[in-house]
TrEMBL record:
Gene label: lapB
The protein's name in its UniProt record: Lipopolysaccharide assembly protein B
Main location: membrane
Family that this chain belongs to: Belongs to the LapB family.
Organism of derivation: Aliikangiella maris
Membrane topology recorded in Swiss-Prot or TrEMBL: Single-pass membrane protein
LapB rubredoxin metal binding domain location: 357-384
Function recorded in the entry: Modulates cellular lipopolysaccharide (LPS) levels by regulating LpxC, which is involved in lipid A biosynthesis. May act by modulating the proteolytic activity of FtsH towards LpxC. May also coordinate assembly of proteins involved in LPS synthesis at the plasma membrane.
HAMAP family membership: LPS_assembly_LapB (MF_00994)
Record-linked InterPro entries: CellSynth/LPSAsmb/PSIAsmb, LapB, Rubredoxin_2, TPR-like_helical_dom_sf, TPR_rpt
Amino acid sequence: MFESILAAAALLMIAIYSGYLIGKGKSKNRSDTKQMGLSKKYFVGLNYLLNEDADKAIDTFVSMLEIDSETVETHLALGNLFRRRGEVDRAIRIHQNLIARPSLSTAHRKMSLLELGYDYMAAGLLDRAENIFNELVADQAHKQASLKQLLLIYQQTKDWQNAIKVSERLQPGASSSVKVEISHFYCELAEVKLSQQSHREAMAFVKKAISADPYCARASLIGGNVEYSLGRFKPAIKAYRELIRQDIELLPEALNQIVSCFKQLNDFKGLTIFLQNAIEQGAGITCILVLAEQIESEQGDIAAGHFIAEQMAQHPSIKGLLKLIDIYLRHASDSARPSLQMLQDVVGKLLQNKPVYHCNRCGFDSKSLFWQCPGCKTWGSVKPIQGIEGE
């Protein structure tokens, strides 16, 4: 509703300005017949506007306006408004009409090109938008805006090499978040190479990712996966261990591989020490439950239950409670078993439809880990949910 009011207001301003030009005498050198024709268009346009026929109104009023230094801003503002309303075809028509005028100044032409590039982006015509922004990158006034749009294009098309090049050009005048983005672009390349079994190239990109951002936990995770796939379990553990320093919240993403590495090395004591250290550093319930499994295999389920209960006294967790109920059911009397089973079902249902991951930037929730948030498009902002319903 608000956008419709804005559009009507913009059209009304064009109508008023057109009437002003008429009254000012811009048509003094024209014949009386042409002046009468212009006046007729003015009132026809007003009629369309009053009858809420925006398509015909805009065609009428724009045809009345001479494109000069006084009216270019009006055309640009109107095109921008139509794009914001989702009427991209109209916006493209207005901006293309501006660019086609040979009398347009160089500065206004570049402004119109920039707006047309935004139009093409909104319409999904990325190849056309890319051509425009590549042209405008050479202009200092539009360089930053064009680079940002090119970065969006290369991310959408998964052209990670060009995304890195553009990011490096943005970096001198950008925030530290650009380094985070660059590291994720290298990680994307590393994952492609890992899927192709090109392990050496994958590790080369991992190193570049860590060089761009030493706290890139995703790079260490991929590096560990490369080593694991090659059967090099000690280097894999070394890579996974970096997650504790870089971002301990992401440690659960590697726990299955970590357990497997220690088991392949027949180093169960080393696994226990690794898990204990991680818990001391702040690892969540997933790590606690894995260590509980180790305790259970060595000392029995009662000892595992006591360990979980001790940990839950400091960090309450529904997942931990569910595991405790499972242990208590094994030792419950016939009279207590039905109540515990009912409690197990209730707690299980509480977890069943809960999201697992949460974007710390926009609040997007999901059951899958996204390295780039689908909601706000931020890299590295989606993490496992913490607290009683999460880690």
